[in-house]
Amino acid sequence: MVHPYFGKVPNHLSETYPFHPGLLQDDIEGWKMQDWNVDRVQTILDYQFGKGIGKILTKGETDLVVSRKTKRLRNLLLNGEHVASLSHRRGMFILQKKGAELIHKSSKSPKFRVIVDADTAEFNRKGKSVFCKFIEDIDSDLRCMDECVVVTPDDQLIAFGKLLVSPKELELGQQGMAVRVRSGIKS
């Protein structure tokens, strides 16, 4: 499809932020609702997390749970375990426990990681959010609103969630909540 602002965009990303045309859909040549298949899911995962992650999160028996009413993808299951859910607002994936474990296992530190002080790790493991002052290091490629994994300095996975500030803001001394933890991971 040809987007008025971004130019040529793969059809698989037609409903993903920032490419979704919204009210412009009648004006964009080639725009139409795409069917859900593993290739499309892999394309979105690669766009969101980087090349190769799509294959990792769909390697095995992959089930796509699609809403009967809206025909939108709801959940991605791998070997019967919930890996991620698709956000209907942004068209991006929201990690679940299995997805966070796979991303952590398949990437080297500090990729996708927010490294927290070992003393506060137990609070995050219980599902409590991460605050800026307890972050020791962060992947500089992360952006605000990205999905991330929270780890200890020795790279032990303790939680996963959504980053609320950019690495640059942390550098500049930002205070307050840094990661809204979706769930802690018990040891």
Overview of this structure, please?
The structure is a single chain. This protein has about 190 residues and is an alpha+beta fold. The protein has two domains: about 1-100, Roll (Nuclear Transport Factor 2, Chain: A), CATH 3.10.450; about 105-185, Archaeosine Trna-guanine Transglycosylase, Chain: A, domain 4, CATH 2.30.130.10. The chain is about 20% helix and about 30% strand. It contains five helices and twelve strands. The chain has a six-stranded mixed β-sheet with strand order 8-12-11-10-7-9. It is globular and about 45 Å long. The model has no long low-confidence stretch (mean pLDDT about 90).
Briefly characterize the structure.
The protein has 187 residues and is α+β, with helices and mostly antiparallel strands. It has helices spanning 38-49, 53-57, 97-106, 121-125, 167-171, and strands at 2-3, 7-8, 62-66, 73-78, 81-86, 93-95, 113-116, 130-131, 135-138, 147-151, 157-163, 177-184.
Radius of gyration: 17 Å
Question: How is the main sheet built?
Answer: 6 strands, mixed
**What's the level 1 CATH class of the largest domain?**
Alpha Beta
Structural class, from secondary structure content? alpha+beta
How are helices and strands ordered from N to C? EEHHEEEEHEHEEEEHE
Cα(first) to Cα(last) distance is: 46 Å
Assess the beta-strand content as a share of residues: 25-35%
Per CATH, the superfamily of the largest domain is ArcTGT, C2 domain
Q: Can you tell me the number of structural domains?
A: 2
Helix content: 10-25%
The number of distinct β-strands equals 12
Low-confidence stretches: none
CATH topology of the largest domain: Nuclear Transport Factor 2, Chain: A
What overall form do the CA principal axes indicate? globular
Which CATH-level-2 architecture of the largest domain? Roll
